[in-house]
């Protein structure tokens, strides 16, 4: 992951580094460590015994223990984790399947008034989701979809669709017009153009959009809490209930928090360059 | 809702050629070109689904906001006119929630933008282990928000065995002051936990902006004798403007809706309930559907008003179109 950052640094920066610049490097390390420290503390605490975790002053070098993890897994977190995975992965796939053609219609061969349509998508993100909470709850109650993971899949799909359309549109807009025209002159059909010309350019964009949709769905709490119960409870909901029902055990809370965050952490670390690209959305240049 | 959306869209696209006007298709003109529907077809599934799932519920919310409806007393359900709105507006808790939402969003977005800018500038330079530092920096963004809130509440802020008071004791000895962080500074406690989570997000966007800077121009300016500050002030900052706007916009969209941290750290107590929490409580705990809906309508109207003003006056983001 570090190599790719360095490669984006232009050759022009190869100047002799003064002491001032070196110390800025140290400052960067310091800032990074400060931001990382709470997380490090969470990891450390999760591997301590409950007795060692709850000491004041803190014991950094207490013997390691798996007590927290054992207690967490004894509480049966697997069904919620599977629910979360289902909701996040399926909704992310649906988002991409829906957003890609939409992005195409908004950039390569734009429909009339495409800026309005694009803005409509984005404006739905301004709607505080909480304002739709009651009707969706009542609807679920009427049709018997309460405590059903597929309702969350639908909701997460629509929740992330605008951002994905927006991101993918800007990635598609990067496909050079000349290439598209050349393909047209050569008589390439829509599918060939998509596969041979557009796909290679937008693969990083799709990956970035998918990653961000996955993170936001995995993290969602409010709707999951209101719309699910025992059967379809997601990992974040499980986490809140778990802490209140069992009292506070610090090592266990930290172990639980870490396990629930793990999929997002792994995905995010593995694809952090995509994350940078995706968040900038190529929208601004 | 659709009418208000149009207002927003009109404001934002006013500078773009061909933009503006309403989202509805102009009759006759739409049929001018053949193949218009072939162009629209790929768009329709996403558009239809979005309209159904986001706009329809909101219509129901508007309708419900005029009904006096508490699920505990289903027999007493009746049309109430503006009663719910009057109740919300005169409810000190609701007013407080509006104030909390505004101050919390503003303070979190500004502080995390500033911290994000500083760390992006630091990370844009070349130094040993830059990739590692970037990984360290983005970690907070990758911790599930509820988990992050639990971490801050129990492992860091806790007055008995939290890390912060523990560090005070470690440094200052056993007589060190022990602070009840959440009890004494509830707003700041919630705010800093959210800032920790969102600073990396801001940093990532701004870093992407910095790395897209045309460096030959910067180098030329340096050779011409421009100081680092001059380069930052007159070249880097203007280039970063649209990235700062994007970061601020996306940050605001997500922070204004924050529920997880408020719910976990204070359960809305100690004057930290924001609007999402207030609505959640009115609906989920008090089961007052009418009141919750009225509050929801108010939130949406306020959000759209603020967004429209912001996009019209401040943002340059949507004014230039590249195709």
UniProtKB/TrEMBL annotation, chain A:
- Species annotation: Lapillicoccus jejuensis
For this entry, the protein name equals Carbohydrate ABC transporter membrane protein 2 (CUT1 family)
Q: Does the keyword Transmembrane helix apply?
A: yes
Superkingdom: Bacteria
- What do the Gene Ontology cellular component annotations say? plasma membrane
- Where are the bilayer-spanning segments? 23-44, 85-106, 118-137, 149-168, 197-218, 249-271
What's the main place this protein lives? membrane
* PANTHER family found in the cross-reference section: ABC TRANSPORTER PERMEASE PROTEIN, MALTOSE TRANSPORT SYSTEM PERMEASE-RELATED
Of which family is this protein a member? Belongs to the binding-protein-dependent transport system permease family.
| GO biological process terms held by the UniProt record | transmembrane transport
Q: Which key words are in the record? A: Cell membrane, Membrane, Transmembrane, Transmembrane helix, Transport
* InterPro entries documented for this protein: BP-dep_ABC_trans_perm, MetI-like, MetI-like_sf
Domain ABC transmembrane type-1: start-end pairs: 81-271
**How does it sit in the bilayer?**
Multi-pass membrane protein
Cellular location(s): Cell membrane
TrEMBL record, chain B:
Compartment(s) of residence? Cell membrane
* Record's keyword terms, sorted: Cell membrane, Membrane, Transmembrane, Transmembrane helix, Transport
Residues covered by the ABC transmembrane type-1 domain: 98-310
Q: What GO CC annotations are associated with the protein?
A: plasma membrane
Name a biological process GO annotation: transmembrane transport
Report the domain of life of the source organism.
Bacteria
Topology of the protein relative to the lipid bilayer: Multi-pass membrane protein
Q: Which CDD domains match?
A: TM_PBP2
Q: Which Pfam families match?
A: BPD_transp_1
The UniProt entry, under InterPro entries, shows: MetI-like (IPR000515), MetI-like_sf (IPR035906)
User: According to its UniProt record, where is this protein mainly located?
Assistant: membrane
Sorted alphabetically, which Gene3D superfamilies does this protein's record hold?
A: MetI-like
* TM region positions: 41-67, 97-123, 135-152, 187-210, 291-315
**Which stretches of sequence are listed as region Disordered?**
1-31
UniProt similarity note: Belongs to the binding-protein-dependent transport system permease family.
The protein's name is Carbohydrate ABC transporter membrane protein 1 (CUT1 family)
Q: Give the species.
A: Lapillicoccus jejuensis
């Amino acid at each position: 992951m570090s190599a790719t950052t360095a490669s984006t640094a232009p050759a022009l920066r190869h100047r002799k580094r003064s002491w001032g610049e070196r110390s800025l490097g140290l400052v960067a390390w310091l800032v990074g460590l400060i931001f990382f420290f709470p997380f490090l503390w969470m990891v450390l605490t999760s591997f301590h015994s409950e007795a060692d975790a709850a000491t004041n002053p803190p014991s950094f070098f207490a013997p390691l223990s798996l007590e927290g993890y054992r207690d967490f897994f004894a509480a049966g977190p697997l069904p919620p984790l599977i629910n979360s995975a289902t909701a996040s992965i399926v909704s992310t796939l649906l988002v991409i399947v829906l957003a890609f053609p939409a992005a195409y219609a908004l950039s390569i061969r734009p429909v009339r008034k495409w800026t309005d349509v694009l803005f409509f998508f984005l404006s739905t993100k301004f709607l505080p989701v909480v304002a739709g909470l009651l009707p969706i709850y009542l609807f679920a109650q009427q049709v018997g979809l309460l405590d059903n993971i597929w309702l969350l899949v639908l909701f997460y799909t629509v929740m992330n669709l605008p951002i994905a359309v927006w991101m993918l549109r800007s990635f598609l807009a990067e496909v050079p017009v000349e290439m598209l025209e050349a393909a047209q002159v050569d008589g390439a059909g829509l599918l060939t153009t998509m596969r041979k010309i557009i796909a290679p350019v937008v693969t990083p964009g799709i990956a970035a959009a998918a990653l961000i949709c996955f993170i936001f769905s995995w993290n969602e709490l409010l709707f999951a809490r209101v719309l699910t119960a025992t059967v379809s409870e997601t990992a974040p909901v499980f986490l809140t209930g778990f802490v209140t029902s069992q009292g506070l055990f610090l090592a266990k809370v930290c172990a639980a928090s870490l396990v629930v965050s793990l999929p997002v952490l792994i995905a995010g670390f593995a694809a952090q360059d995509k994350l940078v690209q995706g968040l900038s959305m190529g929208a601004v240049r | 809702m659709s009418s208000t959306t149009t207002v927003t869209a009109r404001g934002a696209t006013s500078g773009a050629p061909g933009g503006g006007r309403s989202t509805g298709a102009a009759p006759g003109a739409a049929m001018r070109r053949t193949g218009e529907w072939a162009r629209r077809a790929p768009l329709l599934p996403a558009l239809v689904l979005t309209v159904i799932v986001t706009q329809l519920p909101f219509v129901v919310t508007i309708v419900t906001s005029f009904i006096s409806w508490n699920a505990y007393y289903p027999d007493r359900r009746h049309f109430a006119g503006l009663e719910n709105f009057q109740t919300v507006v005169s409810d000190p808790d609701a007013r407080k929630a509006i104030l909390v939402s505004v101050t919390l969003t503003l303070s979190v977005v500004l502080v995390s933008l500033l911290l994000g800018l500083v760390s992006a500038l630091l990370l844009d330079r070349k130094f040993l282990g830059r990739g590692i530092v970037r990984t360290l920096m983005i970690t907070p963004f990758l911790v599930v928000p509820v988990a992050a809130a639990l971490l801050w509440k129990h492992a860091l802020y806790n007055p008995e065995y939290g890390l912060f008071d523990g560090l005070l004791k470690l440094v200052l000895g056993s007589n060190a002051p022990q602070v009840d962080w959440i009890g004494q500074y509830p707003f700041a406690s919630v705010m800093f936990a959210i800032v920790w989570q969102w600073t990396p997000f801001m940093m990532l966007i701004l870093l992407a902006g910095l790395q897209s800077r045309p460096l030959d121009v910067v180098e030329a300016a340096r050779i011409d004798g421009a100081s680092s500050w001059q380069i930052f002030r007159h070249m880097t900052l203007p280039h970063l403007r649209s990235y700062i706007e994007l970061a601020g916009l996306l940050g605001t969209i997500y922070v204004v809706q924050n529920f997880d941290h408020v719910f976990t750290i204070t359960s809305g107590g100690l004057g930290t309930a924001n609007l999402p929490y207030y609505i959640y409580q009115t609906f989920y705990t008090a089961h007052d559907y009418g009141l919750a809906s009225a509050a929801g309508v108010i939130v949406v109207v306020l959000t759209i008003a603020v967004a429209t003003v912001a996009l019209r006056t401040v943002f340059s983001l949507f004014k230039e179109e590249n195709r």
